[in-house]
Write a structure and sequence with these properties.
The chain has two domains: 6-485, Rossmann fold (3-Layer(aba) Sandwich), CATH 3.40.50; 506-632, ANL, C-terminal domain (GMP Synthetase, Chain A, domain 3), CATH 3.30.300.30. Helix content is 30%, strand content 24%. The protein contains 19 helices and 31 strands. The strands form nine sheets. The protein has a seven-stranded mixed β-sheet with strand order 5-4-17-16-18-19-20, sandwiched between helices. Strands 7-6-8-11-12 form a five-stranded parallel β-sheet, sandwiched between helices. Mean pLDDT is 92; it is low at 629-635.
Length: 635
């Protein structure tokens, strides 16, 4: 299933569009199935109803673990790099991981879990998090991983929506120089969660915690009570594998549902091809398993390919800004997959943290989470890849399960800021506001998909109508991504940002990502975020929040003029910000997503209705921004 030349890519793409059922059936046959499917695909985007490999029976953990034991039982499956670099690395071979997953699967069963039950996992980035995820899949329970930085209320909302019966957590977590009280947060959440009957607690920080008799049990104690024999539950291809909550426009998180068969096939195929994985390579995805990137490209995609996947507990700037490069050097990492936010953050420290680090093992660099700006792309290419590692700028979503548009490493010719071309099986279409297709190249519009791929979401948990309304009702017969997109003269795709992040300034559509890219080109700028706000003359004005490399207090006016000149030069005078506020940080989730909803409210002068800010990486940033001085930027 591995594409090795651009001609092969073009041929695979042609086959996938002309005969998608046979294309995906051929790929799916490379996996272990207990029973063959009766039908490859049945779909209707209007309902929506999408079924892949219907009637096929399998268990995803047999494909991620059991089938590798014959040839690579002693090969590292997971390498865990702890938060504290002075602590020892933990390596789990495929045999060790298999044994731990089977044991914990038996622990879950011993504590009442059965096929179809929902289990909430709220843990730090430790090997046991991956073990818990796979153990759920082994017994047919549906995992709902909640990122370890969420608040008690956010956890409670997710537990109640899915009616989880078990929570798996740890006493605490460490990130950088902070200790995070995981179990205490869970206890606060469970006050309002009647469905939870059992809490399984991993010892991680040896923090003092409250253990409620009859409800709370220790991971380590339970693991001693069970064996490592646990036959995998037979699952239908369309049985639920997991729920992953993602923010929606209403504020109430929506539980995106992925199923066993199609998700497995798609994540394994995209991992193999996009990163051009070769056996023995060490793959380091810096995301958290609490996000879709971690599900697909730390756990399921790599393990389905028999890969070695690296988990990192800490943060890229602790104990210093060279931590990523130390890890690459130490573990001879071959593939590094990270977010533009992390790249820009590390850029701000200059190249000194990179000096003296052996990065020669790197073969492929990846970018995920948001469009990467040109300056960050070149910094990554020059200083980390040394101009010899292809950069795969991947575009995809929680809802897509895996990568949809991306270069194939070393095969697709790259272009800074462009996600380039759709992967085989992915059929993008650009439409205008009325849903009319915009054909040809050198055009822009709203990005939709006109045909399903195996990893597409099936529903939003407990609310199928919300799934229909959010993704399938805007344009008839199409899946709407919510993103604006440009297709250039080469047919390459560039994501211009969320459509609700596209501004209409004096009748001109301007993508916030485009403005940010221009602002970030300024030599003194580390990062920026752009939102719209009501403007008496233009309809919408452009409001920019800007982080600079150094204290700007005495030079704000000069830097403001420089930024305006930069934006004017790169995009045109129409895109110049009307207001610029210099800030020390931006409100971000742990995954690096900027919470533009909060920035829009502040820009509009509504500082009282910002919603829950406790889930942010640093909630104090919001207070600083609210109290900051606004600088009127005059054209």
């Amino acid at each position: 299933m591995k594409i090795q030349t651009f001609d092969q890519y073009q041929e695979a793409y042609r086959q996938s569009v002309e005969d998608p059922e046979n294309f995906w059936a051929e790929i799916a046959q490379e996996f272990q199935w207990r029973k063959p499917w009766k039908r490859v695909l049945q779909w209707n985007f209007d309902e929506p109803s999408i079924k892949w490999f219907e009637g096929g029976k399998l268990n995803i953990t047999e494909n991620c673990l059991d089938r590798h034991l014959k040839d690579r039982a002693d090969q590292p499956a997971i390498i865990w790099e702890p938060n504290d670099p002075s602590e020892p690395t933990v390596t789990l071979t495929y045999q060790m991981l298999y044994d731990q997953v089977c044991r914990f699967a038996n622990v879950l069963k011993r504590n009442g879990a059965k096929k179809g039950d929902r289990i909430c996992i709220y843990m730090p980035m430790v090997p046991e998090l991956a073990v818990a995820v796979l153990a759920c899949a082994r017994i047919g329970a549906i995992h709902s991983v909640v990122f370890g930085g969420f608040s008690a209320r956010s956890i409670a909302d997710r537990i109640n929506d899915a009616e989880c019966s078990i929570v798996v957590t740890s006493d605490g977590a460490v990130r950088g120089n902070k200790v995070i009280p995981m179990k205490d947060t869970v206890d606060d959440a469970l006050i309002a969660c009647p469905s939870v009957k059992r809490v399984i607690v991993l010892t991680q920080t040896r923090s003092a915690v409250s253990m409620i008799k009859g409800r709370d049990v220790w991971w380590e104690t339970e693991m001693k009570q069970v064996t490592s024999e646990c036959p995998a539950e037979e699952m239908d291809a369309e049985d639920m594998l997991f729920i992953l909550y993602t923010s929606g426009s209403t504020g109430k998180p929506k539980g995106v549902v992925h199923t066993c068969g199609g998700y497995m096939v798609f994540t394994a195929y995209t991992f193999q091809n996009v990163f051009q994985y070769e056996l023995g390579d060490v793959h380091f995805c810096t995301a958290d398993i609490g996000w879709i990137t971690g599900h697909s490209y730390i756990v399921y995609g790599p393990l389905a390919n028999g890969a070695t996947t690296l988990l990192f507990e800490g943060v890229p700037t602790w104990p210093d800004a060279g931590r990523f490069w130390d890890i690459v050097d130490k573990h001879k990492v071959n593939i590094l997959y990270t977010a533009p936010t992390a790249i820009r953050s590390l850029m701000s420290f200059g190249t000194e943290p990179v000096e003296g680090k052996d990065l020669s093992s790197l073969k492929v660099l990846g970018s995920v989470g948001e469009p990467i700006n040109e300056e960050a792309w070149h910094w990554y290419d020059d200083n980390i890849g040394k101009n010899r590692c292809p950069i795969v700028d991947t575009w995809w979503q929680t809802e897509t399960g895996g990568i949809l548009i991306s270069p194939i490493a070393g095969i697709t010719k790259t272009k800074p800021t462009y996600a380039t071309l759709p992967l085989p099986g992915v059929q993008p279409i650009l439409v205008d506001e009325n849903g009319v297709e915009i054909e040809g190249n050198g055009v822009s519009g709203n990005l939709c998909m006109k045909f399903p791929w195996p990893g597409i979401l099936r529903t939003t948990y407990g609310d199928h109508e919300r799934c229909r309304q959010t993704y399938f009702s805007t344009y008839k017969g199409l899946y709407f991504t919510g993103d604006g997109c440009l297709r250039d003269e080469d047919g390459y795709y560039r994501i211009t940002g969320r459509v609700d992040d596209v501004l209409n300034v004096s009748g001109h559509r301007i993508g916030t990502a485009e403005v940010e890219n221009a602002i970030n080109m300024h030599t003194g700028v580390v990062e920026s975020a752009v939102v719209g706000y009501p403007h008496d003359i233009k309809g919408q004005g452009i409001y920019a929040y800007v982080i600079t490399e150094s204290d700007t207090a005495h030079e704000e006016d000069l830097i403001r003029r420089d930024i305006l000149a930069t934006v004017s030069r790169i995009i045109g005078p129409i895109a110049k910000p009307d207001k610029i506020q210099f800030v020390r940080g931006l409100p971000k989730t742990r995954s690096g997503k900027i919470m533009r909803r909060i920035l829009r409210k502040i820009a509009e002068g509504d500082t009282k209705n910002l919603g829950d800010t406790s889930t942010l990486l640093d909630p104090n940033v919001v207070e600083d921004i609210k109290q900051g001085v606004l600088i009127e930027a005059k054209a």
